[in-house]
Amino acid sequence: MRLMVRQGMTIAGLTALEAMRQPIAALLTASALVFVGLMPFLFTHTLNDADRLVRDSALALHFVLGLVLGVLTACTALRAELRGGTASAVLSKPVPRTIFFIGKFAGIAFVMAAFSLMMTCAALLATRTAAVPFVYDLMGSGPLFIAVVLALAAGGAQNFFFRRPFASQTFGALLVLAPAAVAVSGAFPAEGDPDTWGASLPLGIVPAGALLALAILLLAGLALALATRLDIVPALVVSSVILMAGLMSDYLFGRQAAHSPVYALLDGITPNFQHFWAADALAGDGVPWSYVARVGTYTVFYLAGILSIGIFAFRRMELRG
Prior knowledge:
Layout: H1 2-21, H2 23-42, H3 50-84, H4 86-91, H5 97-129, H6 138-162, H7 166-186, H8 205-226, H9 232-247, H10 249-252, H11 261-269, H12 279-282, H13 289-315
Helix pairs in contact: 1-5, 1-7, 2-3, 2-5, 2-6, 2-7, 3-5, 3-8, 3-9, 5-6, 5-7, 5-8, 5-13, 6-7, 8-9, 8-13
């Protein structure tokens, strides 16, 4: 048992490291953080509702880019190794295919959770910047821009002096500096706010970001299961279709589920991504953590089913050496 745990942890660590070394991970993350930070300056016709527009747009970008990055990472982690023969070389050792597959997902899950953490930090800072109409609080987006510049500089310096991969070093630096930017911003409250940490930060966004992180983990697990049979582009297309069906599942299947067993079955097996989108709730009383816990339970059980199907398909694949 201990051997299998060590094997799984080793595979997960190598998968996460390899995913962070992909240029798309650092490029997509840094670009997304900068774009979210610029949203308060790019939106002009806000009708005195700039903070809501920035917040909802940042969360939507978080959701969409999480889908793209999750599919690309999952397909690269599994499909590329299947084509290159790396997977067959690892599995020729006493490594069970189930442990290999679960380790791959654990590594991908770490990268997706890190991406979601950074995007949630960016949404917090950008929303603070746009809180007061026509007044831009630079202690919001300002630390975020500095964090991105410092992360790129740190990645470049480590690549130049120590020959370490630029992409992974930049991604790791962003993972440290984005929360640090939130900490710095929270220490400088805006004028008129209480002199306590975080008084100017819209911390209600945090549970909404946690829900999106769960959604992205679910999509990453789905993409990894699809990667056992599909390449990157088909897997991205199928994942996008499932995402759209999940966002409309209440309309497509939910209304007829009480009257038709077929619709009830479709409603049950389609992941309802409306559970993960909480932008509308933020306009009201916010998102309670108890709701996040319930959605987390739903995600765990759904992921267990998806990964079981992926393991079943992976164990019946013929690997090429």
